[in-house]
Amino acid sequence: MDNHSEILKLVEVARMYYEQELNQSEIAKTLGVSRPLVSKMLQRCKDLGIVNIEIRSPLEGNEGLLNKMKMKFDLLDGLIVPANRNNMNLSMKNFISQASLFLERRLSDQVSIGLGWGSVLADLVDVFSAGELNTEKSITVCPLIGSMSSPSKGFHPNELSRRFAEKIQGEALYLHAPAFPGNKKNFEVFQQTDEYKSMDTVWQKLDTAIISIGTYPSVPDQATAIRFGKTLKEKHAVGMLLSYFYDVNGNIIEGENDYAVRIPLDYLRKVKKVILVCSGNMRANSILGALKTGLITHLVTDDFAAKSVLELESDLSE
C-alpha cells in the first residue's frame, strides 16, 4: 500500500470509528479485515496526527483563552467555561453552576455587593450557594438599577438582592423605584428622597458589581422610544448594561430624555470588581462592546463566546 492510499484508508477507518460510532468488530466486518488490524490502524491514526483526542472537563476553565481575553481587554480575572453547542440546555446549566463557584471564590473579602438585572443573574442567584464564603463578615447587597414592569424575575433587582443576601446571610438594601420614571420631573423628585440619597451613598462605596448585558433591540424593551427616539438606531447600538446602551466600540450612547434610576457611570468606573456574566447565547458584538466600555474588570463567559469575540475584534481591526 503506498503512502497516499494508506492515509485515505486510515481516514476512512477513523471516520467510521469516531464519527459514525461503529465499533472495531463492525469496522473489521465492513472492510473484510481482522479486528486486531483495525485496532492497529486506529493507533496509527493517532501516531500520524489524523486523530487528536482532546479531553475537556466541563468543570475546568480555558486558561489560555482567558489569558488572551485578559490581555486584549485589560481584564483582571475571569473564567472561560467550556460550551456544549450540541446540548444548549446542559451547557447553560453548567455555565451557571461554574459562574456561581467563581463568584463564591471572589466575594469572600467583599463588604458591599451590587446586583444588576437579567435572566442570567436570576438563574445565578437561584443556584448560588455561600459554600466557603465567609458569612461572618457583614455584607450588604443592593440593586444597581430600579425595577421594570416585566413578568421575568430577572428584572426585579430588589428581589434578586433579597434572595442573594439571604443566601450569604447578608443585609439586603432596596430601591423602591421604577428604572424608568418617564420624565425629568419624576426623576428629580425621586433623587431628592432619603431612600435615593442613602442608596447613592452605598453606590459610591461599592466593592463589587455583578452584571449581565442585553442586546439591542432589547426584550423586554427598556422604554427606548421615550428615552432615545431614533438615536440608538442611528448610532448603531449593539447592547446595554444596566440600561446604558453602547456601540460595538464601547461608546456610551446618550439620549435627550434618558432619565433612569441606576448607579451613575462615574461610580461604576470606580468599583474595584465589575463582574460581567454572559454566555455564548449573547451576540458577539454585544459582548465586545461591553468589554470595550472599559467598565468590566472580570469576565465569566464560555469558550464559544470568547472565541467569537476575539474573531470579531480581529475582523474589525483589519
Give an overview of the whole structure.
- By secondary structure, the chain is of the alpha/beta class.
- It folds into 2 domains: 3-47, Homeodomain-like (Arc Repressor Mutant, subunit A); 63-317, Rossmann fold.
- Helices cover 45% and strands 12% of the residues.
- It contains 14 helices and 10 strands.
- The strands form 2 sheets. It has a 7-stranded parallel β-sheet, with helices on both faces.
- α6 links the parallel β2 (112-115) and β3 (140-143).
- The model has no long low-confidence stretch (mean pLDDT 89).
The count of β-strands is 10
**What value does the Rg take, in angstroms?**
25 Å
* Share of residues in helices: 40-55%
Give the number of helices: 14
Which structural class is indicated by helix and strand composition? alpha/beta
- Major beta-sheet overview: 7 strands, parallel
CATH class of the largest domain: Alpha Beta
* H-E string: HHHHEHEHEHEHHEEHHEEHEHEH
Mean pLDDT: 89
